[in-house]
Every structure is written in C-alpha cells, then in structure tokens.
Amino acid sequence: MIKPWPTRFSNKPETSPLKRAAVSSFFYITICIFYILFSGQLAAKVAQTPEELKQIEVVKGIAFIIVTGILFFILSFAWWRRTRLQHELLLQSERKAIAAMCSASLAHDLNNLLMSLSGLVEGLKGRERNDSFLVNMRKLLEEGIENLARMARHMAASTKQLQTQETEKIALSSALPQIVELIRKHPNVRTCSLKITGDTNVPLTLHPRLLEQAVINLVVNAAQATGKRGKIELALKQEENVLFLEVHDNGPGIDAETAKAVFTSGFTTKTDGTGLGLLSVQAFASSCKAEITIGKSHLGGAVFRLAIPLPEAPSRGREKRTERIQEDKNPPRVTQ
Questions:
Q1: Rounded to whole angstroms, how far apart are CA atoms 76 and 74?
Q2: Nearest-angstrom CA–CA distance, 180 and 212
Q3: 249 and 265 assigned to the same domain
Q4: Are 188 and 317 in the same domain?
Q5: Residue ranges in the chain assigned as alpha helix (H)
Q6: CA atoms of 168 and 8, how far apart (whole Å)
Q7: Sheet harboring 231-239: ordered strands across?
Q8: What is the pLDDT of residues 284-320, one digit of tens each?
Q9: Under a CB-based contact definition with an 8 Å cutoff, are residues 179 and 194 in contact?
Q10: Does one domain contain both 172 and 137?
Q11: 241 CB contacts (<8 Å, ≥6 apart)?
Q12: Where would I find the Histidine kinase domain in this sequence (predicted)?
C-alpha cells in the first residue's frame, strides 16, 4: 500500500525568511537590552563595594552566556533536524518519481516486446505438424509470455496508482514559495540566488506531488548549470487562457542539438548522471496537459517554460500559445 505523501500545499501565504529573521532579531535585541538594564540596576543595589559589583557583573555575564548558549544549541539542533528531514523528503520524492517513470517506460517497452513474441508464437502454430518438440516449445513460450504480460500489467497498474494521486486546487503563487523553501536546503541550490517573480491567484487542478518534483528538478538542474553563485528565477506569467511557469538561470546555455535530446530517457551531460531527472517534468506536464519548451533566458542562460492551459481554454487561445512557443529558435543548454 502506498503511504500518503506527507507534503501538502495550502493557500496561506508563506512568511519570507527576511521577515522571520528581522522579527527574531528584534525580540533577541529587546530581551538583551531589558536584561542588561534590569540586571545592572539590581547589581548596583545589591553590591556594597565596587569589588562586589565587579564580581556580580562577571557572574551575570557568564550566566548570560551559558543561558544563551543553551538556547542557541536548542534552536540550532531543531533547525538542523528540520533541514535533515527536508533533505530526506526531497530524496524520497526524487526516488519515487524516478521509480514511477522507469516502471512506466519499462512496462511500455515490455508490452511492445511481448506483442512481437506473440507474433512469433502464432507463426510457429502453422509449422508444428507432428513435431512434438516444436509443440512443447510453443506451449512453454506461451506460458512465459503470459507470465511476462501479467508482470507488465501489474507494473503499469502500480505506476498508474503512484502517479495518479489525488488532485488539489492549487494557486502557484502560494505553492511555489513552499517548494522553494524546501529546495533551498539542497547542496547545489543553497548558495544560489533564488527568487520568484510574477503573481497569479488562478487556482489550477494539479497533482501537488508531481508539481513539487517537477519544480525541484528544474531548479536543481539550473543550479548545477550556474554553479555555486548562480542566479535562478521562477517566473509566473498569464497570457489569455495559458499560465506560464518559467525557470530561468544565468548558466552557459545549451545548443540546439542538446535541447532536442534533453527529454530523451537516459540522456545526461554529467558523468555521474542517470538521465532521469527531467522525466518528472514530463510526468507533471502530461498530468496537466502542459507543453514544455526551452528558450533563451533574459538572465543569459536557459529558460524551461511550462505552458499550462487554464480551465475551459478556447481553441483559439491554444493556437496562439502554440505559435508563441514555436518562436524559441535559440534553445540554451541543459545540465542533467
């Protein structure tokens, strides 16, 4: 039984890291000032001599360091524990998405092979005559093909169950900040500049898990292309009946030949790559009938563009969307 995915998106706005840090710093500074003023007045009343006041101040300072050190340990432990949990969730999501896509591809190829073998077995039926050896071979082949077909059907059913999780009404302007908060902990992303531009509150019926995995893989690919100090931008744009989700980077870009092969199963430009990362992007695009294109980013690198049709989009809007997508003549480079 497949366990429910632990991550769920809500439409509540996410507090920015800068605002959180500013509020935390304000409270810390306020508490420290209050402590210094109050403890200083108390020490002055208690101390009888300057020497006693000096000793009280020393003890007071040491106690303050110990208490704040313990609090810092507790907070840092909680933060690192949360970071580790998010990293494990990220790896779990990546493994499941890759497993699902590999199973789907394997089941499809296996079915094609079985159809060819079935044709060969049919051809043997007319040549058996009285040859008992051929009769036995045909029966064994039929049994083997039936077993393989059963395995293929089971694999396809498991993949479909894994990929067709419950859909939700999601506004990308609310969901993206939560995904970005998760992906910032990735080793390749944490040192990059990552921001979200554009705003649209149009609710879409999407698979939260597929959306998360697609964005994660696109951002990680962009970070690997740009290096440790790269710039990555997630842009939301709405034109007529189409919502565009774009991932820009300032990497070196890709050539046209690489862009054509980037979504091919097993294709990779990395020595240790598997070529499966962008399959999750295809899975998400397929689930919401989106179109994927690669273009030249205004940051100087690549832009991966997902054109998601809005509900009840007229055919005219789809034709204009297709014309717009075909304008990208200079695709950049993908690192996968």
A1: 6
A2: 9
A3: yes
A4: yes
A5: 17-46, 50-125, 132-163, 172-183, 208-226, 256-261, 279-287, 315-325
A6: 9
A7: 193-197, 231-239, 242-249, 302-309, 291-296
A8: 888 888 999 998 999 999 999 999 998 864 444 444 4
A9: no
A10: no
A11: 309, 310, 312, 313, 314, 317, 318, 321
A12: 105-312
Q: What is the pLDDT of residues 187-239, one digit of tens each?
A: 788 889 999 998 878 888 888 888 888 898 899 889 988 887 899 999 999 98
In 124-140, which positions are buried (b, 16+ CB within 10 angstroms) versus exposed (e)? Answer: eeeeeeeeeeeeeebee
Using DSSP bridges, classify how beta strands 231-239 and 193-197 pair: parallel, antiparallel or unpaired: parallel
Q: Which tokens is 60 given? A: 């007071």
**Burial (CB count within 10 angstroms: exposed 0-12, middle 13-18, buried 19+), residue 27:** exposed
Q: Based on the domain organization, do 152 and 209 belong to the same domain?
A: no
Q: How many domains does the chain have?
A: 2
- Do both 175 and 75 map to the same domain? no
Tokens representing 108 are: 């499809």
Query: Domain boundary residue among 141, 163, 185?
Result: 163
Q: Can you tell me which residue has the tokens 């499809």?
A: 108
Residue range(s) defining the domain that contains residue 216: 168-325
For residues 333 and 336, give the distance between their C-alpha atoms in angstroms, rounded to a whole number.
Answer: 10
- The answer to whether 211 and 194 have CB atoms below 8 angstroms apart is no
In a domain, 246, yes or no: yes
Structure-token pair, residue 190: 């944490």
Together in a domain, 277 and 213: yes
Between CA 321 and CA 240 the distance in angstroms is 9
Instruction: Please name the helix (run of DSSP H) or strand (run of DSSP E) that holds residue 309, with its range, or none.
Output: strand 302-309
Is position 189 within any domain?
Answer: yes
Judge if pTM exceeds 0.85: no
